[in-house]
């Protein structure tokens, strides 16, 4: 699989420049870098691809990701994850939420242990909440939907 991965010359340098401008954190850069990698990866190498809290898709169309467009997904927490779509289209690519044909997963991580509902909390405090374990008797629907993608039981909405 790794042999099928080709990152175009200059892609990483662009990401380094944009990352220092955005100060968006390592995981977000990883998602944008993954989008770049997906442009060049061979067909049928990756089964599903999920964007979470991404500053950009690194592409302008799900059809250029190297994975079946029916198996591309995005989850976007609406509160305190302002990393999403923070870069202009010319740097990080389109906001994944706006990619035509992408499947939308729940962005509701409010039941996650560590999710911060305080309206005065920082702009990025829920940036990792997609992956928080659910509190007892609650749900992190974002994480549950990601699990359904992995288990191949997620239906398109």
From TrEMBL:
Residues 84-119 are annotated as: Disordered. Residues 92-101 have a biased composition (Basic and acidic residues). Residues 33-85 form the DUF1023 domain. InterPro entries: DUF1023 (IPR010427). This is DUF1023 domain-containing protein. It comes from Schaalia dentiphila ATCC 17982.
